[in-house]
Design a protein that fits this description.
Blueprint: H1 2-28, H2 46-49, E1 61-64, E2 67-70, H3 86-91, E3 103-105, E4 108-110, E5 115-118, E6 121-125, E7 131-133, H4 142-150, E8 155-157, H5 168-174, H6 183-186, E9 205-206, H7 207-210, H8 227-243, H9 254-260, H10 273-282, E10 311-315, E11 318-321, E12 342-344, H11 348-358, E13 361-368, E14 374-379, E15 392-406, E16 412-419, E17 431-435, E18 447-449, H12 456-461
Helix pairs in contact: 8-9
């Protein structure tokens, strides 16, 4: 029995030693808090809690950043876990570690390596205590917005959350997407339109009012650089509806063009409208309900969606689908086609007459950085964006009408009404007005129309 008691006592003593060693190991061998310098050196920790403990007191702690620090004398050792103000407050001496400088933002202190985003620019706190920010030109620029709204430019600018945080370079790369056609196409003959010298066109016209229920609302291309496909699908939809006298009112699929019209086209990486019209004439597309748009984020590393629609000839230039709709809820995979596109004169009256008689037209335009921030009014490119970051890109839109208004000085301001493809939250519910008759942003330089391929059988069977 005495031997058993001795063995038990030895085990208890050994356990206590091991426990003490384990406790000491957990604290003493932990990485020092200040190996790279004291963070938040001016912070009040021991002082705020009135804590200065004698000897070793593992309960003498204060929350410190994402961990804890100590205010007992035991903390003052080579690998220290003392609070930043321990030496000055508890011992009255300078700290033995260098002070790590912090960055200040909105009254708060941040350690080296901390980051935040200022619109499209990433800012990083450096070891010397200063913020180091990128210097990208941002797509949404508050200074430009303020300058436009203070000036007398005839239109107002605004911030858009869907574009906030993007660089100007990204906006041009992802929010436009129309490639100018080659010279041979740009120089194609203009359609000759007979205009009576005495013919008077109305001061205002809106296609949606003349053809109710036949004009599609503005689309949203997101961050897909596919305005070439969206504007083409939008104009073709309206023209087919009008030319069939409302017997067919399809909302055609931009995705069908983006995924399947791959001849010299780059899908959401950009494309040409002449190639899109070739595809509509020779292959045709289905409706957006049958083949819905798949919006890929600009940072997506996924490959472009493959083509999921095909068609074959049925004779007399007509085609029928040979694949089911990608949307399993859709049952009609009918193919819609157009005739060859034709170019209109740059004369505003010719364009106006074409819209009034045959429906909306497609136009190519140059987009400058202030256009992204358009909210309402008659747009003209302003001089406030001048500087080293000035950039522009090519876009295509649908012109649906025109109008005019009196300005503050009593002069007459003529404008086009156009549908963009940046969603209904942008501009005037997805539309914008732009100066007419002066080729603002080249919008009158290359304008095309088209006829929907509509036969008598379509008129009788699609009511």
């Amino acid at each position: 029995m005495p031997g058993s008691w001795l063995l038990l006592a030895a085990l208890l003593l050994a356990g206590g030693v091991l426990a003490a060693r384990a406790s000491r190991t957990r604290r003493e061998l932990a990485p020092g808090l200040h190996e790279r310098g004291i963070r938040d050196a001016g912070g009040s920790y021991c002082e705020r809690h009135g804590a200065c403990c004698h000897g070793r007191d593992d309960a003498c702690t204060v929350p410190y950043l994402d961990t804890i620090c100590y205010c007992d004398l035991f903390c003052n050792r080579t690998i220290s876990d003392c609070c930043p103000d321990f030496w000055e407050y508890c011992l009255g001496i300078e700290p033995p570690f260098p002070v790590q400088k912090v960055c200040i933002r909105n009254g708060h202190k941040f350690p080296a390596g901390a980051t935040y985003r200022d619109n499209c620019n990433l800012c990083t706190c450096r070891a010397h205590g200063q913020w180091d920010c990128e210097n990208h030109a941002c797509l949404i620029n508050r200074d430009i917005i303020d300058a436009i709204n203070r000036g007398n430019y005839g239109w107002r600018a605004s911030n858009y959350s869907q574009m906030w945080g993007m660089t100007l370079e990204e906006g041009i790369q992802y929010r436009l997407g129309t490639v100018r056609p080659p010279t041979s196409v740009m120089n194609m003959n203009e359609l000759q339109v007979s205009m009576d010298a005495n013919e008077v066109l109305p001061p205002r016209f809106n296609a949606a009012e003349k053809w109710p229920g036949m004009i599609q609302e503005p689309l949203d291309q997101g961050n897909c650089a596919g305005s070439w496909a969206f504007s083409t699908a939008a104009v073709a939809s309206d023209r087919i509806s009008i030319h069939s006298m409302g017997h067919m009112t399809p909302a055609l699929s931009p995705q069908n063009l983006l995924s399947c019209n791959t001849r010299h086209q780059q899908g959401c990486g950009g494309g040409r409208i002449d190639g899109a019209w070739w595809f509509l004439r020779r292959r045709g597309v289905v409706t957006d309900y049958c083949y819905p748009f798949t919006n890929q984020d600009k940072d997506s590393s996924l490959p472009a969606p493959p083509c999921m629609m095909s068609s074959q000839s049925t004779g007399r230039g007509k085609r029928q689908a040979t694949a089911r709709c990608p949307n399993p809820q859709a049952h009609s995979n009918e193919i819609y086609q157009s005739t060859p596109a034709y170019r209109l004169s740059s004369d505003e009256k010719v364009i106006m007459k074409e819209i009034m008689e045959n429906g909306p037209v497609q136009a190519i335009m140059e987009v400058y950085e202030d256009f992204f921030m358009y909210r309402h009014g008659v747009y003209r490119h302003t001089p406030v964006a001048a500087g080293q970051h000035r950039r522009h890109g090519t876009h295509s839109v649908k012109i649906t009408g025109w109008g005019e208004e009196r300005t503050a000085d009593g002069s007459r301001e003529k404008y086009w009404i156009a549908a963009n493809s940046w969603g209904r939250d942008w501009g005037e519910h997805g539309y914008f007005r732009i100066a007419r008759g002066v080729n603002e942003c080249d919008i009158e330089a290359f304008v095309v129309g088209v006829w929907g391929r509509v036969g008598m059988e379509d008129m009788h069977h699609r009511k």
